[in-house]
């Protein structure tokens, strides 16, 4: 880990009169890692996943849910090994920097920032829609501008992140637990032990309306069940015991999400026809309304609201850490590599994305922001799979200390590459223009980095791990 001195923080400004070191604080434990990972992702059970139903029907969405679960289990296993070894801010960016090289690291950093910022924007959009729907359901008939709630959500959570990571992720842990409990309460309330009484699966499940192609198409939004669990790595530099906390928090988070995803599909597919479910903005809240229970509707309103807030909160944390790490290494202007002298947070990186997120939230449809986030995540997973293969070849087991060793290598990496390829095809079927536009953007950004930005980087200062020379060097 490389601390940031006050001189580095000032950048082009006048040098500070003291050499006091200002760095990120190691204050987090496994529960905070769980709260960060699940907090970012649990919103995928409250919204977004159901667009997979519209792509291929309820059965196709369930199949996509489990296939995506395998994909993200591979991600979690690979992440747990590499991150417990490369415990630095920036997560996958720091891993690519040490294992592959500068250009890969630059791209991975952009993937992370785009994925988390678009996920944050999606959460803000849903927060605005949810509050608008709830207020109208309560009988309010006046004009209500949901865009104000979108902007307020982003500003408020950015302020929390500005003030400190411990309080931010402690809040995430609490509200994520409440949101998960809301899913369990809804599951019990619909009486799954009495088929046909509340849940109408026998009437509503219609097989595969678009055939096997529907399963492929559903993989696009199937990733939304789990997108962001890899965000646990962004807190690596602020965790007290990375070798223990990161694998434990990430893997238990993945188990939590697998359970929540299956329960969510089961409840919603038994209460709503697939034609409606496939386009609903807040499916779990709608499911609670269909039960006719006022308290249950209120609980799922709170659960959905807490899930969106927890996810947006974690996304701000993760995007700012990735951008901060890139600034510290001069992949971006060093001005972004500043740590607040009092709150020990990457405050400039946090503030920088506030207007960008608000602009996207008030101007872009939800399915578009979700797609942008998924595409950026997919690109990152592809490099992650290649990176762990290179990591094992350069530093075989026994050559360096690892906090965790994932089993069955290289099977998880090969499986991850296969499922990513399938999902690229699924995205292309429905959003080919966005896929090509995103690829063109990242190619142009890579050219900018190679031709202009790389000359400012201090490559020798980037490699902070005390490792021996790689095998074959």
From TrEMBL:
Any coiled-coil regions, as ranges: none
UniProt-annotated location(s): Membrane
Cross-referenced InterPro entries: AA-permease/SLC12A_dom, APC_superfamily
Chief location bin: membrane
Pfam families: AA_permease
Organism superkingdom: Bacteria
Keywords: Membrane, Transmembrane, Transmembrane helix
Start and end residues of each Amino acid permease/ SLC12A domain: 39-440
TM regions (residue ranges): 31-52, 58-78, 99-119, 148-166, 173-190, 210-227, 248-267, 298-324, 345-364, 370-391, 411-429, 435-451
GO terms, biological process: transmembrane transport
GO cellular component terms given for this protein: membrane
Topology of the protein relative to the lipid bilayer: Multi-pass membrane protein
Entry protein name: Amino acid permease
Organism of this sequence: Hansschlegelia quercus
Lineage, top ranks: Bacteria, Pseudomonadati, Pseudomonadota, Alphaproteobacteria, Hyphomicrobiales
């Amino acid at each position: 880990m490389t601390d940031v001195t006050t001189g580095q923080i000032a950048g082009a400004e006048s040098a500070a009169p003291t050499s006091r070191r200002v760095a990120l604080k190691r204050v987090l434990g496994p529960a905070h890692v769980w709260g960060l990972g699940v907090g970012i992702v649990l919103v995928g059970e409250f919204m977004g996943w159901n667009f997979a139903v519209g792509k291929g029907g309820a059965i196709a969405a369930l199949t996509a849910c489990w296939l995506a679960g395998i994909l993200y289990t591979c991600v979690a296993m690979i992440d747990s090994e590499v991150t417990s070894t490369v415990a630095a801010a920036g997560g996958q960016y720091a891993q690519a920097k040490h294992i592959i090289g500068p250009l890969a690291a630059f791209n991975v950093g952009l993937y992370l920032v785009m994925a988390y910022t678009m996920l944050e924007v999606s959460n803000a959009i849903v927060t605005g829609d949810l509050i608008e729907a709830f207020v109208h359901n309560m009988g309010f008939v006046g004009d209500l501008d949901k865009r104000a709630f979108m902007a307020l959500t982003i500003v408020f959570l950015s302020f929390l992140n500005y003030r400190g990571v411990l309080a931010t992720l402690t809040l995430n842990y609490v509200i994520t637990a409440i949101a998960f409990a809301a899913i369990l309460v809804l599951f019990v309330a619909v009486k799954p032990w009495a088929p046909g009484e509340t849940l109408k699966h026998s009437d509503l499940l219609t097989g595969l309306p678009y055939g096997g192609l529907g399963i492929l198409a559903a993989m696009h939004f199937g990733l939304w069940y789990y997108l962001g669990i890899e965000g646990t790595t962004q807190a690596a530099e602020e965790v007290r015991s990375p070798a223990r906390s990161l694998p434990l928090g990430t893997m238990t988070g993945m188990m939590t999400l697998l359970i929540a995803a299956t329960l969510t599909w089961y409840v919603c597919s038994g209460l709503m026809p697939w034609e409606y479910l496939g386009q609903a903005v807040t499916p779990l809240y709608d499911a609670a309304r269909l039960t006719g229970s006022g308290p249950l509707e209120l609980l799922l309103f709170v659960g959905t609201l807490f899930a969106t807030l927890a996810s947006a909160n974690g996304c701000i944390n993760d995007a700012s850490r990735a951008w901060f790490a890139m600034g510290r290494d001069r992949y971006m202007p060093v001005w972004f590599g500043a740590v607040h002298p009092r709150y020990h947070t990457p405050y400039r990186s946090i503030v920088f994305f506030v207007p960008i997120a608000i602009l996207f939230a008030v101007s872009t449809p939800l399915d578009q922001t979700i797609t942008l986030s998924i595409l950026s995540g997919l690109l990152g997973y592809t490099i992650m799979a290649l990176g762990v293969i290179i990591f094992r070849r350069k530093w075989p087991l026994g050559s360096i200390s690892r906090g965790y060793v994932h089993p069955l290598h290289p099977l998880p990496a090969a499986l991850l590459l296969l499922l990513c390829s399938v999902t690229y095809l699924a995205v292309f079927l429905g959003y080919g223009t966005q896929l090509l536009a995103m690829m063109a953007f990242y190619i142009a950004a890579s050219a900018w980095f190679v031709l202009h930005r790389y000359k400012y980087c201090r490559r020798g200062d980037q490699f902070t791990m005390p490792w021996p020379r790689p095998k074959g060097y």
